[in-house]
Amino acid sequence: MTMTDGDLAAHLAEVAGRILLEVRASGVFEGKALGKAGDQTANQFLVHALKAHRAEDGLLSEEEKDNAERLAKERVWIVDPVDGTREYGEERADWAVHVGMAVKGEPALGAVALPGAGKVLRSDQPGEVPAAPQTLRMVVSRTRPAAEATAVAEAIGAELVPMGSAGAKAMSILLGQADIYLHSGGQYEWDSMAPAAVALGWGLHASRIDGSPLVYNQSDVYMPDLLICRKEHAEMVLEKVRALG
């Protein structure tokens, strides 16, 4: 089966999401055990599929032992089998599956499945982002809202919207459920790569919170911060971040 990179990313994200729903519906696992089972099962599917269909590309997965060979590759698939393991284990809907590809370090392609909502959003098939309301909404962690995010929200008069996974937060802007996703509590490349690619593909702004570009396929996969929002709000948010120091 020959597919474009975009079709492959979307197909794998969607199928992995269906597998995860089946694992959860089986009733065999619950809580943390469910999260672990889901992570491992979805990871095996994604890793085997990518090695079968894109063997020459590099690969980085949250659930797979890192291989330094990816650093020499121009094209590197970066996946998160279950973004929001806690939410998945708690049988919530705000979790996601990330399948993305960085090309020369840039977030070039991505698909984010939201299995709880039955949606797959992809960078190569952008839709129209709904207009922002008069009072902006800033999506934040439902368990650990970042201090910078809450401070910026207060400064611009934005309403806080608690939500689970990074992918769910980023996609909430595309779906018209929120307007700004500002994160400063630390993440890893697999948390943001596919969502950032999708956001950029849909015409949104995606950067570090100092305004610098997001760079992937690094030897250190830790990423301290992230901003995804509509382009018309980016400078305002970045200015508030600078003002807060």
Protein described:
With 245 residues, the chain is an alpha/beta fold. It folds into 2 domains: 5-122, Fructose-1,6-Bisphosphatase, subunit A, domain 1 (Fructose-1,6-Bisphosphatase, Chain A, domain 1, 2-Layer Sandwich); 137-244, 3-Layer(aba) Sandwich (D-Maltodextrin-Binding Protein, domain 2), CATH 3.40.190. Helices cover 39% and strands 24% of the residues. It has 7 helices and 12 strands. The protein has helices at 5-25, 31-53, 85-89, 147-156, 166-174, 189-201, 231-244; strands at residues 58-61, 75-83, 96-103, 106-114, 119-122, 137-141, 159-163, 180-183, 187-188, 205-207, 222-223, 226-229. The strands form 3 sheets. A 5-stranded mixed beta sheet has the order 1-2-3-4-5, with helices on both faces. Strands 7-6-8-12-10 form a 5-stranded mixed beta sheet, with helices on both faces. The longest helix has 23 residues, at 31-53. It starts with a helix and ends with a helix. The relative contact order is 0.15.
Major sheet: 5 strands, mixed
Q: Label the structural class.
A: alpha/beta
Second CATH tier, the architecture of the largest domain: 2-Layer Sandwich
* Number of individual domains: 2
Ends distance:
52 Å
Strand order of the largest sheet: 1-2-3-4-5
Provide the low-confidence segments as ranges. Answer: none
From the alpha-carbon coordinates, what is the Rg to the nearest angstrom?
17 Å
Q: Report the mean per-residue pLDDT as an integer.
A: 96
Classify the helix fraction into a percent range: 25-40%
| Percent strand | 15-25%
Shape: globular
Strand segment count:
12
